[in-house]
Structures are given as structure tokens and as C-alpha cells.
Specification:
The chain has 324 residues and is mostly beta strands. The protein is built from two helices and 26 strands.
Length: 324
């Protein structure tokens, strides 16, 4: 894949968007959930094959097939970001105006672990086996970052309890050479099927890289540029991601798919700017969150091969994840 030209990350604009999202999330959390499922109904709500979303600041599920918004089932569990796989969920929760926590949930949405979370929640992922959990938040006040914020991305092994609070501590190989820098940022983890390797976005010196990492070896190496918020396909062959238009986030993002064997990029039929980490519904379909001009989210999907056209799945919702 050709190396993209270097550009600066649009830090100030992104920080403003995150602050607005946080304020909006807090307002949503102050509203009561409607039609919340009781404990006896959670098994039906969370059964495999349904689509998990965050709606009105609470977890909800809908039918993964059929008409949009079909059979939406609300729960009373509050989250601003969420994901789930194989009976394990991760919920990034707002506890106060500017305080957050990370919660690992079981198949019945009960807390199995919880941790204070520094910064504004932005991304969350669970490995396909349900063992590994990752999260990303924005942190303010980093002196080295001219935009006034940086990211913190961590990984938790739920089987051993081992936790890495920031992937910035990993050893980095950039273009084949060992690399260290004070401005390093990592975000948007997606796990492979072995629960050790992962892909993520790393930025330094204004360039955004796709990196492949090893949890056990504590290493990351660069693979390509201008690949943000990766999401690995179920068959492990492709990565859905957002690509900065003309390599500049100020111009917005184009939803795309990277073939890991050839490093070829396919732009998907969704032409609106999508600022989200996509989620695969199956090997042929990618889901994602679109926000309208008022900031209202909705979940959409589109074919992963660039054909067809986007279709709305759930209105007033975000953070899609197909339950397995």
C-alpha cells in the first residue's frame, strides 16, 4: 500500500466533538429508560443473533434481520459506549458530569469487574471469544499535544485479570525500526481470533498508522498509514476502517475496507463522513454509527465489497455489536 503524505491530526476539532458528545451523553443518561427489560427477560433480550446498541444512554437490542428498529428491547443498564461477544460485554459508563467507569458485563448484564476510567470514553471492543476487553478514552491537558488532549487505550485479559492501562508502553517498530516518541497515541483496538494479536491506530508526528500488536510480547509494528479505527472481519482477512479524505481528518472520513493479503483499499458505498469504529455483522456486511447535523445517532449498514447502498438499521442508536 502506498505511503500517504504526512498531515497533522485535527486535534482541536476532535476534542470539541468529544466534549459535545460527552455533554449529550450525560443529558441522555439523566432520562429514564423506557420499556426496560427485567432480569427475567434479559436472556431473551441478550440472545445470540440480536444486535446490541446503545440507545438513549442505555443498552438495547434489536433484531439483526428484518425491518429497521424491529422488536427493539430496552434494558436499564446505562452506557455511553458498549460492545459484546461470546457472553462478555464491556460498558463505558458515565457516573457524573465528568466521571466515568469501565464495566465488564456477563451474559446477564451483571458486573463481573469494574474500574475507574480516566478521560472521555470513545471506543470499546471485546475479542470474539469474550476473553479480551479493550477501551479508548480521550485525555485532556497533555502538554506535548498542541490540540490539548491525547488518547489512552488499555486492554484487560478477563481470564487472568492482567491489565495494560495504556498501549503507549508497548515497544514500537515503525517502518522496520525501533521507535520511541513522547507524542505517541493509540486508539481503536480490534482483536484477532487468538486473543493475543490485535490491530489498532497509532499516531505520531501527525501521521496515523495501522499497527499490529502482541499483548503477550508487548509490541506493536506499523503496517500502513491513514487507517483509523480498524475492525477485523470475522474471517480475519479484511479490516473495515475510516480513512481520512485526502489524508486530512478536517475533510472528514470515508468508510473503507483493507484487504490484509494485498493491502488494497475498497471504498464502501457510504459516502457521508463516518467518525466511528465499524462493526462487522457478517463477512459481507459492515455496521456503523452515523450522526446527523444535530448530533443524533443512528446505526446503518452497507456491503463490505463496495457494492449496493447503505441502509438504516436502528434510529436513535449507536455502538452496534452482533451478539454471539
Amino acid at each position: 500500500m502506498a505511503r500517504s503524505r504526512r498531515t497533522r491530526v485535527a486535534g482541536t476539532a476532535a476534542a470539541g466533538a468529544v466534549l459535545l458528545a460527552a455533554a449529550t451523553s450525560y443529558a441522555m443518561l439523566s432520562r429514564p429508560a423506557t420499556h426496560a427489560a427485567g432480569a427475567d427477560a434479559l436472556h431473551d433480550v441478550m440472545r445470540p443473533g440480536r444486535l446490541l446498541v446503545v440507545s438513549g444512554g442505555h443498552l438495547a437490542t434489536v433484531s439483526a434481520t428484518g425491518a429497521p428498529d424491529r422488536a427493539k428491547r430496552m434494558t436499564s443498564v446505562s452506557c455511553v459506549r458498549a460492545y459484546a461477544a461470546s457472553g462478555t460485554g464491556v460498558c463505558l459508563r458515565q457516573d457524573g458530569a465528568w466521571t466515568y467507569s469501565l464495566h465488564v458485563l456477563d451474559a446477564h448484564l451483571r458486573d463481573s469487574a469494574s474500574y475507574p476510567l480516566r478521560g472521555l470514553p470513545n471506543r470499546a471492543r471485546v475479542s470474539s471469544s469474550g476473553r479480551m476487553v479493550s477501551w479508548t478514552s480521550f485525555i485532556g491537558g497533555e502538554s506535548y499535544n498542541k490540540g490539548g488532549f491525547s488518547t489512552r487505550t488499555g486492554i484487560l485479559d478477563t481470564a487472568t485479570g492482567e491489565q495494560v492501562p495504556t498501549l503507549e508502553s508497548f515497544h514500537v517498530t515503525l517502518d522496520g525500526r525501533p521507535y520511541r516518541a513522547v507524542d505517541l497515541n493509540v486508539w481503536g483496538v480490534t482483536f484477532t481470533s487468538d486473543d493475543n494479536r490485535f490491530y489498532a491506530t497509532m499516531s505520531t508526528q501527525g501521521v496515523r498508522y495501522l499497527v499490529e500488536g502482541s499483548f503477550t510480547a508487548r509490541t506493536m509494528r506499523t503496517l500502513a498509514t491513514n487507517v483509523e479505527c480498524p475492525s477485523l472481519s470475522p474471517d480475519g482477512t479484511r479490516i473495515a476502517f475510516k480513512q481520512a479524505i485526502d489524508d486530512n481528518p478536517v475533510n472528514g472520513w470515508r468508510l473503507s475496507v483493507l484487504d490484509l493479503a494485498t493491502m488494497d483499499v475498497t471504498h464502501l458505498a457510504e459516502t457521508r463522513s463516518i467518525d466511528d469504529q465499524p462493526a462487522w455483522l457478517d463477512d459481507a456486511t459492515v455496521a456503523y454509527t452515523f450522526r446527523d447535523s444535530a448530533g443524533t445517532p443512528s446505526v446503518w449498514s452497507t456491503p463490505a465489497d463496495g457494492s449496493g447502498r447503505p441502509s438504516m438499521r436502528v434510529s436513535g442508536a449507536e455502538s452496534p455489536a452482533l451478539l454471539s
